[in-house]
Amino acid sequence: MKKSLVALAVLAAAGAASAQSSVTLFGIVDASIGHISGSNGGQSRTYLGNSGLNSSRLGFRGVEDLGGGLAASFWLEGALNNDDGTAGQLGTGGFDFRRRSTVSLSGNFGEVRLGRDLTPTHHNDDVFSPFGTVGVGANIVFAALNNAQGFNANPNQVRASNSIGYFLPSNLGGFYGQAMYGLAENTSGATGAAALAGRSGQYAGGRVGYANGPVDVALAYGESKGARLSLSL
């Protein structure tokens, strides 16, 4: 019995020694000086801004090699206003990880990701807009979808909380895709307006595409319960 226990202990130690892990601190600090002038002698303003070209952010990510081609990882990323040192997300009391907060398990099967993440429909805006989704060059489609007359009431236009996501593996000859389902975490049994409000935030969407050399084509579709339809091409 003692020999068996010693053997098991040695195997456990060997497994722990073979596993590799890493944690990375990363971020972007984007600062700019701007001036706005009104026509015909109107009001003007000079200001120090942030996130003019890239969103200022701070984050932590880590990976743990589980062996056999499996890896566990986490990603915590929050926005910041480096012009005055405050948190980057409006309506929050301090720095948080609303840009991304996920844990993942990946392998030859692809990746399963849990937490708050970008929606499949928003990925197309990020990838195919030549100017991205921040600054003066932000694509007009993204800006229109987020104004008061567009999709401003949709909490899942950019990211979804309480989500379960799946990403196809990268060895499919150029084909890629993902699917996401965001839980509303509503109380069951509600009726009428309460039931609709309880579904607000629930999201289901997916994205498929093909990339080969200069060719990259993708189609994404998503739907939010209690909000409006989200569609990207």
Brief rundown of the structure:
The chain is of the alpha+beta class. The protein has helices at 2-18, 120-128, 140-145, 192-199, and strands spanning 21-28, 31-37, 44-50, 57-67, 70-81, 86-87, 100-107, 110-118, 159-167, 175-182, 203-212, 215-224, 229-232.
Strand tally is 13
Can you summarize the main beta sheet?
11 strands, antiparallel
Q: For the residues shown, what is the average pLDDT?
A: 80
Order of helices and strands: HEEEEEEEEHHEEHEEE
- Strand portion, in percent? over 45%
- What is the structural class? alpha+beta
Helix content: 10-25%
- The CATH topology label is Porin
The CATH architecture is Beta Barrel
Quaternary structure: single chain
Estimate nothing, just give the exact number of structural domains.
1
Radius of gyration: 22 Å
Characterise this structure.
The protein is an alpha+beta fold. It has a single domain (21-232), classed as Beta Barrel (Porin), CATH 2.40.160. It is 17% helix and 45% strand. It has four helices and 13 strands. Strands 1, 4, 5, 6, 7, 8, 9, 10, 11, 12 and 13 form an eleven-stranded antiparallel beta sheet that branches. The chain has a two-stranded antiparallel sheet with strand order 2-3. A hairpin with a 2-residue loop joins strand 4 (57-67) and strand 5 (70-81). The chain is globular, with a radius of gyration of 22 Å. The chain starts with a helix and ends with a strand. 16% of the residues are buried.
